[in-house]
Amino acid sequence: MKVHYECAACFLRQAREALDLATSDDQMKMEVTEKITKILGERFRQGAAANEIGTKIHRTIKEETGNSDPYQEQRKKSNQIALKFLPKIEKIIQEKGNNLESYLKAAIAGNLIDFGALGLDFDMESQIILTMKKDLALNHSDKLEEELKATGNVLYLADNIGEIVFDKLLIEKLKDYDVTVKVALKEKPILNDACISDALEIGLDDVAELISTGTDSIGVIYGDLSEEFKETLKKADLVIAKGLGNYEGLDEMDLGDKPVFCLLNAKCQPVARDIGVKEGDNVVLKM
After folding, report:
1. Residue 76 vs residue 256, higher pLDDT
2. Closest C-alpha among 249, 240, 243 to residue 161
3. Which residues, 6+ apart, have CB-to-CB distance to 70 below 8 Å?
4. At 107, phi and psi to the nearest 5?
5. What average pLDDT does this structure show over 249-277?
6. Gyration radius from the chain CA atoms
7. End of a domain among 46, 65, 84?
8. pLDDT band at 131 (very low <50, low <70, confident <90, very high)
9. Domain coverage including residue 259
10. Based on the structure, what is the number of domains in the chain?
């Protein structure tokens, strides 16, 4: 996805929050902020890829502060939030009929566990249940079900830690369609994106094969992916991608006629505008 005008302010908001988490040294924060504003000055222009700029900014923060995981405490909190609400989500799924759409909505509800997009002060706990009960504003779940019935292997692009607790529910449901599932996670921390170690903590390896994208990019950036992962992406019959970063990255790729579905909550106006929904809407989108 290309940047929209609002993205500049969001990059700066994210950078400030990440710096406050990464270091208590105000002088260092000033120096790093100068580098970040330079990055924006050089790269932020019409037609630029949003997740490429975001990745550059967060890598710069990690490198300059020497803090390889500024969101470490928030990552732990995300798992706690997800596990706390898991029984409630499972109950809602059963009440809704235990169908694929209910599991998709659960995975999307988990997409709200996102300190990067929504900020550190967002009341995500109350919004998780509300999101789970909302209708899908864009609903291609029937098309996804058709593809699942015709496919053999699924590549599932994970997004955030905490969120993967609800992804696990959906992946277990996908097994009803007699498919194999590989879940792609980040090689090392960036923002609150999930890594393999995070997935192992919740037993995601019990329901799917865990693989690395080979990089720490926000979402997927084709040039950053490992050759091994590029081959996995090429061979996948079906791709299911979670969250804004993966949507932004896949929107920049040419995947031919491979079926790709994005599951997300349109947490910001630019993404909502790009997809054609309202901010806050839940989306199951066939790209």
Report:
1. 256
2. 243
3. 18, 19, 21, 22, 61, 62
4. -65, -40
5. 93
6. 18
7. 65
8. confident
9. 72-286
10. 2
